[in-house]
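Sequence design from tokenized structure. All designs in this work follow the same two-part layout: the structure record, then the generated sequence. An example of the structure record is given first.
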């Protein structure tokens, strides 16, 4: 097992550049890089691209795990790309590749990643993302921590490592 620490960052592909979610994602990526942590994401646009931009511009590593058959579909800020050819099923590969998961905003794909992450025991830090409630053992969404800022999200992820 390598000593490399990895955090998965998940969020919506439809997030507009300059939006609050994009600004938060870029800061998360930069803070992860500054901490020497490899960022892993779905490699596409929106939150994923903003996080990769932050990480790569800070000299960090950003791995994109894309749904299609071509590494060319990755955003230009990924430093490494894995083409899976498995569509949305790659969401499991993304969260499995991180020791913790930071969810920023997001839609249904992000919700699936949160569910996969918790099913395999990965802690999830939610930054303006899904608020979940459950019943019985799932009451209070165990393993999901809410963060109010990019700084807090990264701090919580680093604590989980």
């Amino acid at each position: 097992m390598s000593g490399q620490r990895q955090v998965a960052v998940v969020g919506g592909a439809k997030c507009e550049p300059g939006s609050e979610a994009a600004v938060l994602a870029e800061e998360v990526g930069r803070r992860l890089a500054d901490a020497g942590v490899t960022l892993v994401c779905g490699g596409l646009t929106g939150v994923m691209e903003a996080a990769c931009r932050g990480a790569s511009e800070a000299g960090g590593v950003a791995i994109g795990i894309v749904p299609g058959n071509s590494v060319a579909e990755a955003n230009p800020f990924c430093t490494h790309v894995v083409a899976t050819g498995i569509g949305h099923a790659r969401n499991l590969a993304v969260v499995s590749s991180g020791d913790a998961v930071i969810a920023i905003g997001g839609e249904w794909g992000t919700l699936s990643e949160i569910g996969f992450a918790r099913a395999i025991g990965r802690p999830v830090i939610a930054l303006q993302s899904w608020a979940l409630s459950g019943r019985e053992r799932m009451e209070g969404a165990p393993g999901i921590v809410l963060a109010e800022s990019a700084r807090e999200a990264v701090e919580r992820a680093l604590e989980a490592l």
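The domain at 6-160 is CATH 3.40.50.450 (Rossmann fold). We note this feature because it recurs in several other targets discussed in the main text.
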